[in-house]
Structures are given as C-alpha cells and as structure tokens.
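Subject: Predicted fold for Histidinol dehydrogenase, 427 residues

User T.R. writes:
Posting the sequence so we have a shared reference for the thread.
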Amino acid sequence: MKIYQSTDQSNQLNKIISRSNLPTEQVEKVVKEIIQDVKENGDLAVSNYTKKFDGTELMNFEVSEEEFEQAFQETNQNVIDALLVAKENIERFHIKQKLTGYKIEETDQFIQQIVRPIQTVGLYIPGGKAAYPSTVLMNAIPAIIAGVKDVIMITPPNKEGKINNSLLVAAKISGVNRVFKVGGAQGVAALAYGTSQIPKVDKIVGPGNMYVATAKRLVSGIVGIDMIAGPTEVVIVADETANPRFIAADLMAQAEHDEMASSVVLTNSLSLAEQIQSEISMLIDEQPKKVIIEKAFDQYGAIILTDKMDDAIEIVNKMAPEHVEVMTENPIEMAEKITNAGAIFIGEYTPESVGDYYAGTNHTLPTSGTARFASSLSVLDFLKKTSVVYFSKQSLSKAKETIETLANEEGLYAHARSVSIRFEEGN
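User M.O. replies:
I've generated the structure tokens; pasting them so everyone works from the same file.
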C-alpha cells in the first residue's frame, strides 16, 4: 500500500478521496434493457437472466419449507447460535428507533401525525461471490420491528439452483416471510413490478453490485429504496500511539470484500505509516483472499500523511466514508470531531468487524461520500408518516382570513374560494 502526502494532487489519490458510485453508460443501458424485459415478460425474463448470469435454469423461484428445514439440518449449530446472539443485539439497538405519533388538540380542532409501517418490503441479499447471513439480519430485523407485514427476500442462486444454507437460516431466524432464488437487476425489477411468482413490493432495501444499485436507482419512484450503495470502504484515523499490526489487519478485513473496496489510513506519523506497510507485507500471505486484497489495495488503498491530526479529520469529513476507525491517544475526543461518516468505531479494540457481527448497530451504511446526507439503515426506513387535520366551522372561521390572504398572494384563487364558499349565507 502506497504512502501519499495529503497535499499530493495525483489522479490516483484524488480517485480514492473523491470516488463515486455512478454507473457507466454501458451498465445503465444493460440494466434498463433488463428492467423493461422483466416488466413485459415477467417470470420468463427472470428465468432467462437467471440462466444467463447465475448458470442455473429455474422455473419455480420460491424456496420451499423443505429447503429451509434442510438448511437448518446442514448448518453448524455454532453458526446458528452466533446468528441468534447477533439477532438479539440488533433487536436491542433497533427497538429504540421506533417512532410513535403525536396529536395536538384544541377545543374544536386537532392536528395529528400517524406512524404506520410500510406494508410490503423486498430485501436484496447478495449471494454471488460470497453469502452474508449477517446482512439478512441487518435488513430484516428493522423491518420486523417496524411492523412490516410482508418481508420478501431475494438472493442469487448457485449453479445448482440452491441458496446458501446460512442465508436461509438467517432469513427464518429474523422473520422473513418468503425467499426467492433471484438476483441481479432482474430481481430488483421483479420486486418493483411484480411477476406471477414474485410479489410487487412497496420498498426495496439491501446492498448489491453496480448492476443492482443501478436497477434500484432506476425503479426508485415506482417503489421506495433505501440508498444507492457502492463498494465498501474504511478510513482509519491513527497517530503514533496506534498499533500498526491492528491497522494492517483492519485494512485487509475491508479489502477482502472485493477488488473495488477502499482501505485508507490517515496519520501524521511517517513511522507508523512505514510500520503499517511492513505489517501488511507480513500478514497478507496468510489471507485466503490475498489476490482480492492486493487488487483492492492497488486501486483504492492509501496511507495518507497529514501535518496535523485535525487535517486528517478534515479529510474524513470531506470523504464521508462508510466506516471510520479512530485509533489515537484520545479517540473519543477525536471521534466527536467527525461529522460525516456512516459508522464510527472508537479505540484499538473496536474493529469494524464488531459492528458487522455483534454490536447491534446496522452495517447497511451509506457509501461513496453519501454519508454527508444519508444514514445507516434503520427502523425509520420501514415507517411512513401521515398527517391528519380536523377543523370545525368555528376553527376554520378563525383561520379564514390568513388562508385567503396567502392563497390570493400565490394566485391560487380557487384555494381561497374553497374556504370563503363555506361561509356564504345558508352554509
């Protein structure tokens, strides 16, 4: 992993600091064609794309109860127990996010906000290069807590037409209603428009590759979506007190996701930067995904030297990364200065993996700088708010002049008339 000065204006460093998840024109063209095909031809199109992209021919997409039972039988009990612990922690954190409505009453009028769950939600769970049962929990549990009636999950099948056992176990544990063996842009389109087998949903959530992210963006408005997620990323803020071996391990943990993953260190210590490089060279050979890690480091990895730690914080807030780890002498104080981040992990014994699997906070997070305005997935993503207004004739009489004045000012004369007509003689 290369060391840069923060003042470096190279194209490579700019690519790392300012990267976005916008698709290429070719990706968007392909996805538009897939969506239109699924919209017009339903299950037949889904089946054709499943054969083309996943290498398996399926006519029935839904996972059966027998397949769920087999998944439990074939999954190590230690994995099931770990998923149950993670579920408990996720529930403990997310239950606090539930909203209640409110009502403001006067003698003859009231205004109110009602909070209700979205009725049907589709979860997209990746299943191509790797299967992530923890992501099932992170997406399904907030929806269940919110009160979503129908939670539908889609995930790509393998070449044998099967779903990874741990994904099915996680789906059943978390309360998913139905699971379908469908992935990619065709799966997103099926959820958005519905087919004879796959129900149309009200909102689609969950991470995926560039084709999935592009499909979600293109169907947004037909259905709701959570966010447009890009490749994963971590930024580690560290000073001379940090442990370079821990940092090297955490950088590799992020980079092993895929070749597009971004792993960055910001530090004011050249000595630490060089030690991190040394530790990476010693640790990387033991990594089963060494090739992926090396490619990710080459494309989106960097150790950036700053003059002061405050400069490092300034760069973090500019990047607005998915994950930030703070390993400094006063990590809590330093973390308080970070305003743009999906999630912050404080201290040398809080690796990002704690958030992925145990802490209970959500690991579906904004990427590619969108933490400037977006938040992690939460119960709020599965709730909608409705306003309710009641005015008596007496209340409307008090408001009449104000409403008519503003409506006439805006040239909306029928708005004003809709009030005044109610006070004509005989009404």
